[in-house]
Amino acid sequence: MASGVPIQGPPIQPVGTSTAAFVGATGGGPHGQAVLVTSFVEFERTFGTAGGELAQSVRLFFENDGTRAYVVRAESHVVAALTALDGLPVNLLALPDTGGLSPHDAANRIRGAADVCDRKRWILIVDPPASLSQAALETWTQGLGSRPNAAVYAPRLRLPDGTETAASGAVAGAAARTDRDRGVWVSPAGSNGRLVGVVDVTRALADDAAERAVSVGINPIRRIQAMTAIWGARTLSVDDPKWKYVSVRRLALFVEESIDQGTRWAAFEPNGEPLWSAVQQAVADFMLRLFQQGAFEGTSPEAAFFVRCDRTTMTQDDIDNGRLVILVGFAAVQPAEFVNIRIA
């Protein structure tokens, strides 16, 4: 294409944000394969009617308005089994069986899964071991390290039949409902984090105990005013405070993935000014639509986000080696600060 001839790519489309994956033991079904289910009836048809943590979690996911879930049956080598999800549009990962593991084994499984989530732009919804006291849970959570793509939810949930189960399925469903009703930039917490299909939690936390739990990265689930709801919105990001809120991290992952997928058309275009201008405009249009939906802080687009794709974002080595680099910044709704995303 001749220099200076305008290039125009297709508009960037928003990717999905609330497809969950559940990996662990089931009563039946194929081993090591990712099976898409869109209802609990479909789950039972494929994996059987036997109970267990994973089955209860999938049921609660759909009861809390989740709509799409991939299920992978894996009784052992659970982290390795995550490869079955490669290439699938997963956003939320749940490993409900960690609730029944020892603290050591659960931590190892969660660390391995969190590493995968970092690479895949997923969020891991962490179910802590049921055996931990509140004090031990706080210590255990801090021992997981800084994990921006992981969030801990506790205590466990009490079901109408008197049994208990992991919280991850209900949390994933609440996230899906909040994404649909409000947007991925809103945390599934408070009134947005109301959980259905449960009657209580297994451990009641007073206000000071809940505040202490949040301070170490635990999102408490509480029974307040006849409502069981998520009462925290923190990730496990310790080293990088800009990712400490679930909503901010999920919004950033959504923006990254949408732009990544939405600009792939540029891969074999001449890497010069016309392409940079077209990509910058496409990304700016996408960010403007999000701003108009209330995704960012600020009273004007200029105050809410910026997009750059030019010689300030790319070195000559980048250009010579065919790398196109976009720099995107946005003012998160909470906290109100700029978060820079570098996509190459």
Task: Give an account of the 3D structure.
By secondary structure, the chain is of the alpha/beta class. The chain folds into two domains: 20-247, Rossmann fold; 269-343, Dihydrodipicolinate Reductase, domain 2. Helix content is 35%, strand content 17%. The strands form three sheets. An eight-stranded mixed beta sheet has the order 2-3-1-4-5-6-10-11, with helices on both faces. The longest helix is centred in the C-terminal third of the chain and has 20 residues, at 273-292. It is globular.
CATH class of the largest domain: Alpha Beta
Order of strands in the sheet with the most strands?
A: 2-3-1-4-5-6-10-11
Instruction: Summarize the helix and strand pattern as letters.
Output: EEHHEHEHEHEEEHEHEEHHHEHEE
Helix fraction, binned, reads: 25-40%
Distance between the termini: 23 Å
Q: What shape does the CA trace take?
A: globular
Number of E-type strands: 14
Average pLDDT for all residues:
94
Number of domains: 2
| Uncertain ranges | none
Q: Could you say what the CATH topology of the largest domain is called?
A: Rossmann fold
Strand content: 15-25%
| Rg, Cα atoms, Å | 21 Å
Helix and strand composition category: alpha/beta
